[in-house]
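User: I'm preparing a small set of examples for a lab meeting where we compare how different chains pack in three dimensions. I only have the primary sequence for this one, and I'd like the structure in token form so I can line it up with the others. Please keep the answer compact; I'll paste it straight into my notes.
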Amino acid sequence: MADFGIRYSSVITPTETVTLEDGTTTKTFIHSDIDARFGGKTSKDVGTGSTKVATKTYSINSANRTLDTIIGTNLANVSLLYVEILSADGAGTPDCFVRRSTEILSKGVEVGDWFLIRPNQVSGSSIYIYSSSDLAACTIRIVYALF
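Assistant: Understood. Below is the structure token output for the 147-residue chain.
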């Protein structure tokens, strides 16, 4: 029997870009007033059920779809949600919104953008994922954990 879990981490580096004396060359450094990177990592055991951590690649558009609809099952106790924009499917700049009720929890605004949300054991039927318009449609990767 296997035990399942999820490890996740994040790092953020405030930066500044300076132009060198030649007037054309630029260099990017850690922000001089802040002078630090920030981040952390942790892990969470979810138990023996392999479906408590899963991933799905999905194409979204302006239709509000619940996480349950996207995954294809009723999810309880969603406690971690990772979303990444993989590619643009519409003619415009891709975007992705995640909301619960009327509150937008997070958004991605270009290919490669990603975010991590830590809802507090909510059902997948209360989480909606969508693009602002069909022109902003995109393919996303979702990873979720139930604990």
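A couple of notes for your slides: The first strand starts at residue 4 and ends at 12. The helical segments are 67-71.

User: Perfect, thanks.
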